[in-house]
Design a protein that fits this description.
heterodimer; A: Rossmann fold; three-stranded antiparallel beta sheet; B: alpha/beta; Rossmann fold; 10% strand
Chain lengths: 178, 221
């Protein structure tokens, strides 16, 4: 986890209300986590550690925590605790179990009530749960220039959807930009 | 008795949160395996195949759906059966009116005051839009607000168990008083809702008096 986010996490865990909110959201995605903490050392270095429900009084240091758990914690910090009006997240699905993607997207939609969130992805599950209205497709035209289009405006896409071919299947079949 | 599995099919995330935090712990007393899964983003054929597989493995399931704009519970169940050929009528639970009402059901004056929201004696007409409009400004996340309500409900259940027999007696008296206050029409509606809910719950081994949330939602003063 980046140094900036560690400092950020330390500030949040020291504020009672922000800590409450962070724990609610982390536990919603990772119910096996019972505590999060950031330890500060004399040389001002920071260590992210967490406690699981399986082991009382035993913290796991960052080096033993899975990338997925760290990514999810950082994602929640970015979505809910960054006060900038725009948050851009690149491929949030990395290291996350497909089953959790729906909850991650739900949190993105929740956080987007307060600010603009832009997500880049190649993951069909993210495409599925984002919803057609929220998808901007980036592709290249015949001259090699990037173009952005909205699949929601395409009648062909709506026809596929009416025949129960899901958005994610259209994406996998490369038909969203038809 | 062999290994008993129960699959709970709910529509979306909010339904899943409620069932995982409130209902699963109760049902885990009767089943070795209880899992709540979402169906909103699954195609009909896939849901049918899941139901077929669940029945083939000898497991139980319930399918929870909002009543939405259906005129009555029976109509909603029929609509669901028309959509899913492998579903059994007695496994369908119809939420009146939407799951947000269940979140609010049972929150008393003290809890409502802490959240700075109105107290609802009846929550079966609460819609998602109404629920969203009463989220306090201190919560900038709807998910955070839902999770806090669930934490309060779990605490209330714990306190209720501690009260024990007194709690049961109080709930029984309250239920009787409420019943006396309802009109004849509402009593019939109440009876239908309770009958519908209890049939499924009794099959799952739950006693209605301990299932306070559906009971609270069904009471219509």
């Amino acid at each position: 986890m980046g140094v900036i986010y560690l400092s950020f996490l330390k500030i949040i865990t020291e504020n009672k209300e922000r800590r409450r909110k962070l724990f609610n959201l982390v536990k919603d995605l990772l119910p096996f986590i019972s505590n999060l903490d950031v330890e500060k050392f004399a040389d001002k270095s920071l260590l992210f550690k967490l406690q699981e429900i399986y082991f009382e009084n035993q913290y796991l240091p960052a080096s033993l925590i899975s990338d997925g758990t760290i990514n999810i914690t950082a994602l929640i910090l970015a979505l809910y605790f960054e006060e900038k009006p725009l948050t851009i997240i690149e491929e949030p699905e990395r290291n996350i179990h497909p089953y959790l993607i729906a909850k991650v997207v739900d949190m993105m939609k929740d956080a987007s009530q307060e600010k603009q969130i832009i997500v880049t992805t190649h993951n069909p599950e993210i495409v599925k749960y984002a919803g057609l209205d929220n998808i901007l497709l980036l592709s290249r035209d015949e001259k090699g220039f990037s173009i952005a289009s909205r699949p929601v405006n395409k009648e062909e896409v709506k026809t596929f959807l009416q025949n129960e071919i899901g958005i994610e299947e259209l994406y996998v079949q490369n038909l969203l930009g038809i | 008795m062999g290994y008993r599995r129960l699959f709970i099919w709910v529509e979306g995330e909010d339904d899943q949160r409620f069932f995982e935090k409130i209902m699963e712990p109760k049902l885990q007393k009767k089943y070795n395996f209880v899992e709540t899964r979402r169906y909103a983003d699954l195609k009909k054929e896939k849901i049918n195949n899941f139901l077929k597989s669940i029945k083939a493995m000898g497991a139980d399931y319930i399918y929870v759906t909002d009543i939405n704009n259906s005129p009555c519970v029976s109509a909603k169940k029929q609509e669901t059966q028309n959509k899913l050929r492998n579903i059994d009528e007695d496994r369908i639970i119809v939420v009146i009116k939407e799951i947000e009402g269940w979140y609010l059901a049972g929150l008393g004056n003290t809890e409502s005051e802490k959240f700075k929201i109105d107290t609802f004696s009846v929550t079966d007409t609460v819609t998602k839009e109404q629920f969203n409009s009463l989220i306090p400004k201190t919560f900038d996340s709807r998910i955070d607000f839902l999770l806090e309500i669930l934490k309060k409900k779990i605490l209330l259940k714990y306190q209720s168990r501690r009260i024990g027999h007194l709690g049961t007696v109080l709930r029984s008296i309250t239920a009787r008083l409420l019943k006396m206050l309802t009109t004849a029409y509402n009593r019939a509606y109440l009876a239908m809702c309770l009958q519908h809910s209890t049939k499924i719950l009794v099959k799952l081994g739950l006693q209605i008096h301990s299932f306070r949330y559906i009971y609270a939602v069904s009471i219509n003063t």
